[in-house]
C-alpha cells in the first residue's frame, strides 16, 4: 500500500478505519474543522482515535507524548479530507516504523485476537 492511498472512512478495506457511531455527514462536519486524526492500535487489532486536531503538528506532538509514555504502542496520523460523497482518509505519519510494519502488527493482532498482557511488578 502506498502512503498516497485514499480510503472511504467507514469502508471495510480501510486499514485505518475507526469504528464509530458518527454518520457520514457528522464525520464530514468534524473533519471540516479537525482534519487530522491521531489513532493508536488497540490489542485486538482495531484503531482507537486518541484525538482530532486542526493542524498536523498538534497531532504529531500529542503522538510523541503518548509514545514516550507508552513506548510499545503503535500510532498513525490520518488526514481526513472532504473528497467525494463520503470523504477520504490518508495515513500521513506512522510510528514506530513504516506503514507496512504497522499493517503487519495490526494483522497479527487481528489474527491472534484480544490478549491481555500481564505486568510483572
How would you characterize this protein structure?
There is one protein chain. With 121 residues, this protein is of the alpha+beta class. It has one domain. 31% of the residues lie in helices and 23% in strands. The protein has 3 helices and 4 strands. Strands 2-1-3-4 form a 4-stranded antiparallel sheet, sandwiched between helices. Strand 3 and strand 4 form a beta hairpin. The chain starts with 23 loop residues before the first helix and ends in a 9-residue tail after the last helix.
Number of domains: 1
Rg = 14 Å
Runs in which pLDDT lies below 50 for 5 or more consecutive residues are none
Output the strand order for the largest sheet: 2-1-3-4
How many helices? The count is: 3
* Proportion of strand residues: 15-25%
- Percent helix: 25-40%
Termini separation comes to: 40 Å
Short description:
The protein has 121 residues and is an alpha+beta fold. 31% of the residues lie in helices and 23% in strands. It has one domain (24-111).
